[in-house]
Amino acid sequence: MTQIEEKVIDSTFQFSTPVTLNSPELQSLFDFIALGASERDRDRILPYDVVELIRRSRLGALRIPVAEGGAGRTARELFEVAIRLGDADANVAHIVRNHFSITERILRSERTARNRRWLKAAVDGAIFGSAANELELKKAGGGGVVNTKLTPDGNGYRLNGTKYYSTGSLYADFLYVRLLTPEDIPATGIIPSNREGVELVDDWDGFGQRLTGTGTTKFTNVRVEADEVILEKDTDKDNLPYNIVPQLFLTAVNAGIIRSVLRDATALIHKRPRTFYHAVAEQAADDPLLQQTIGQISANAFAAEAIVLAAADGLDRLAVAKTQGEEAQLAAALAASLGASKAKLIVDDLALRSATLLFEVGGASTTKKSSNLDRHWRNARTLASHNPSHFKARAIGDYEINGTPLPPRGFF
């Protein structure tokens, strides 16, 4: 970060408490993020300064109870924020996706000393990133581990291995790492990202979500303390079969993209200096065809947001079910996962259609690289590809027809 950037940030934003849904500071932060979103995406400017602002705002503590220093907001409110952040910058929204997934897992777990320590770090502004995927696995998303392993080292361990698609980790303070114990048992470690031997490589070259730091993470003889490793049998491990937050967060970002498309489409109408000779109106703003297109995008944005928030309500119902016994909790988790899965199928389609309609509003001149309006389609398509719709739809159909529970892994 340059001295000028530091000065602008310091003079503009002051955060005394963790921001909440209605904080004026939160809207100011999102407005600031939106101003540079297109330029960052076009020129591949990594948003370290923006992530630093998110740290200072303590947005990552949105779901942590007030009694523990957080904002204490509901799941529905979290996803309202996710949509607004996706509207401001889809890259930045995706960067913090794993943070909220990880903190949600910790919140669902027993409050041991280490879980309280990790939640306190989030309250203080720390960002959590994930390093879970390995290309050697034949089946993506199954939670398996083959090459990232602990070896004994005194009263702790050493970690060696390589992870891929580590979204957000480039900007994170802590890494949530899937690994093998010395006995070849799958486990999870949460370790500082700046620990000696951790290498974060910015080698993601996707055509969309270019700035998310979805690159390679290498661990070379990294020291891991014993209480940084969460074993499958530990009582403070989240054992819920469906995590839900990661998949619904991507869908919320796509809902945010539709809102951003609507803003850009409306701006194009007002800036458009000319129209086609065979158009039915002299001014673009008076053209009924363009009005109809804007109206369709607006309806898509409304529907997408409503669908995401309806699915988010399932997470709040899950929190209530937790007090009603294991059977009620499992039923609520399945229902919430089904809601998130169905939301994805519809919202992804609306996002891609809306991003295409944007070019109907502006014509060929909107395809200029300098305008970077293609970022909306590229980002929406990339987000949707994380969790292919046809596989998701098949699983939903199998449940509806045969009562087969959804697969209890990362994509659900």
If you had to describe this structure to a student in words, what would you say it looks like?
- The chain is an alpha+beta fold and 412 residues long.
- It has three domains: 3-127, Butyryl-Coa Dehydrogenase, subunit A, domain 1, CATH 1.10.540; 131-231, Butyryl-CoA Dehydrogenase, subunit A, domain 2; 245-402, Butyryl-CoA Dehydrogenase, subunit A, domain 3.
- A hairpin with a 5-residue loop joins β4 (174-180) and β5.
- The chain is globular, with a radius of gyration of 22 Å.
- The strands form two sheets. The protein has a four-stranded mixed beta sheet with strand order 1-4-5-8, with helices on one face.
- α2 runs antiparallel to α4 and α11 packs across α13.
- It contains 13 helices and eight strands.
- It is 50% helix and 12% strand.
- Residues 1-11 have low confidence and may be disordered.
Fold blueprint:
Layout: H1 3-12, H2 24-35, H3 37-43, H4 48-57, H5 75-88, H6 90-95, H7 97-108, H8 113-123, E1 128-131, E2 149-153, E3 156-163, E4 174-180, E5 186-192, E6 198-201, E7 216-225, E8 229-231, H9 245-271, H10 288-321, H11 326-362, H12 375-385, H13 389-402
Parallel strand pairs: 1-4
Antiparallel strand pairs: 2-3, 3-7, 4-5, 5-8, 6-7
Helix pairs in contact: 2-4, 2-5, 5-9, 5-10, 7-9, 9-10, 9-11, 9-12, 10-11, 11-12, 11-13
